[in-house]
Amino acid sequence: MTLDAPLTGRDPIACEAILANALLVLPDRVERGWIAIAGGRIAEIGEGDAVPAGATDCGGDLLAPGLVELHTDNLERHLEPRPRVDWPHAPAIIAHDAELAGGGITTVFDALRVGSIVHVSGAEKPYARGVATEIAALRREGALRIEHRLHLRAEVCSETLLEELAEFGPEDGVGLLSLMDHTPGQRQFRDMSQLRAYVMGKHGLSEEEFQAHVAGQQALRARVGERHERGAVEAARRLGAVLASHDDSDREQVALSAAHGARIAEFPTTLEAAEACRAAGIAVMMGAPNLIRGGSHSGNVAAADLAEAGLLDIVSSDYVPAALLQSAFALARIWDGDLARGFACVTEAPARAAGLADRGALRTGLRADLVRVAERGGHPLTRGVWCAGRRVA
Ligand SMILES: [Fe+2]
Asked: Is pLDDT above 60 for 280?
């Protein structure tokens, strides 16, 4: 299956519908109007509050493009709902898919880590190849509601990165590959007290075990880091994937990412790094939970500060799928109520950054990926979701 094949696995759907009396979130403004769907595409867009016979009356709800999610850890949570509980994969993927659809997401790049630590018992083992195969099988069977693509998260500080990458080929439809380096003492974990809380909480380590973990990881990075970094950049080229950087912290790291050919920066950790990304033409992506909570759980730069500085291009739901839709509204509040601009960060901007030209905006001829949203008590409520014209939630 190639990247551009219909990854939902279903036949093209000759779905006909008109959604009327909606507040359309257009690329540059919000306007009352209607949308006609035909053959899975947006056939026509009109303005005004008329509700033609046979049309669905949206009652003034917002109608926005379906959301495009580039980096979600959510599948891992379904695969391992409790520490060391291995849930059957197919039902985990199906539940993850339904959760995303319910949150208005119609295209997802499922983030799967490649690069594991295999010599420590209880550490993170390889799983990406197996899960990718299972997602592809479900897609072919038409078992999934939304469109799934792959995002390989290449962990440089690991033992098995190159072997795991070698198991993927261009036929796997890997759309994104991000270069991660979670070596203690740098990037996301520059602040060791944050790392201590994260690692000790997640794996239940004692202080001595934590210190041994840090020393072991730093030695591993020194041994394999350069080779892994080069291999991952090469793999992105071989797989036809857009390259993303991860947790860049300063100008030097951004310059290196730009030299590698990165087009998206996941979660730059400082204002300096975000400014350098903008100067280098790299799209800045921040996590929705950071935006909603008012700061980063790792103590890094706040997404809201980058939005206020005009340095935020894309939002990803990261570890809370429902936060993506919330983010569109949160950004609009920062940007003087500009909902079109807020939604662009979760629709058109991620679609373009990932090389998808056929979706992400309400425009005639694009895929009919749509989400109907009402607001209740300041919180978004999805009232209908369509993926390629088919109702999926
Ligand atoms: Fe990270």
From this structure: yes
